[in-house]
Amino acid sequence: MKILFLGSSRFSKFVLQRMHEKGLNIVKVITSPDKESGRGHKMQPNEVKLCAQSLGIDVFCSSKLKNDMQEIKNIDFDISVVASFGQILPNEFLDLKLCLNVHPSKLPMYRGASPIQNAILNGDKQTAVTIMKVGEKVDSGDIALQKEVEIYPNEMYNDLEERLAILGGDMIFEAINLQEENKLLFKKQDDSKATYVKKFVKEDGLIDFSKLPQQIENQVRALSENLGTYFFLKNNKIKVFSVKICDKNIENLKISQVLDDKKHFIIGCNQGAVEILACLSPSGKKMSGADFLNGFHPQGEFVNGLC
């Protein structure tokens, strides 16, 4: 069966790689156009394009699918697979062939742009990968396959994203085989149980130390790698890479106040404290929390301008 693949993100890349490893016949990849990147503003391809080229798969770049339908109609394919493509697929495209979507959540939960981040952010113990038929409304199509996945304690976004994408590739392999045997069945989603999640913006990365320690840890796990999590200290933006819940008995430490005990970079929060394990200094150097303390001595200071 000849497959047309559509995707534009890191998640898409891992799905594509796994599909290729499983021996599926991917005849073409559609992805977003090259974008300016870096200080030189040079045009750079995304990870999906680079992956497809390394695998010897033909690539077509499209900024708006509905404007390229004539080109797409000339592609010889039997089924399309979409994974984090970033565009609404026009009905004209959906009418061509069956289109399957790889979605990393237990639909109808977490329809939308950020299912993995929200699963971590909300402290979920499990998530899922769903293979569904693409419908007119976002992530509302009929479900073919769904498999639950455990979220490991302290698992970061990138690791979970890769695990889910690889499973998604395996599930597409299963779905394609079932479709070839005319055994792929679909079940409607229960729209009454649907939840929707938005795309995060940079402001969502600001750490609010009036929250509970577990909420702050979840925020860093969910957003630090792909969006960035941060706070402000002495008018400096401090980017945070990893934290852990402080297990020490900290007395008289106020919310947002820094405790510098020479070895541990601890900040007070609601009903406890968190330790900053790794961060980016104002000079732009990544360092451990302990090294940060040695250079900046923030004992007793309050972050985010609070006091």
What does this structure look like?
The structure is a single chain. This protein has 307 residues and is of the alpha/beta class. It has two domains: 2-197, 3-Layer(aba) Sandwich (Rossmann fold); 202-305, Methionyl-tRNA Fmet Formyltransferase, Chain A, domain 2 (Roll), CATH 3.10.25.10. Helices cover 26% and strands 28% of the residues. The chain is built from eight helices and 17 strands. It has helices at 10-21, 47-54, 69-73, 91-94, 115-121, 157-180, 213-223, 289-296, and strands at residues 2-6, 25-31, 35-37, 42-44, 59-61, 79-82, 99-103, 111-112, 126-133, 143-150, 196-197, 229-233, 236-245, 258-260, 265-269, 272-280, 286-288. A seven-stranded mixed beta sheet has the order 5-2-1-6-7-9-10. Strands 12, 13, 14, 15, 16 and 17 form a six-stranded antiparallel beta sheet that branches. A two-stranded antiparallel ribbon has the order 3-4. The longest helix is centred in the middle third of the chain and has 24 residues, at 157-180. It is elongated and about 65 Å long. The termini are far apart. The model has no long low-confidence stretch (mean pLDDT 94).
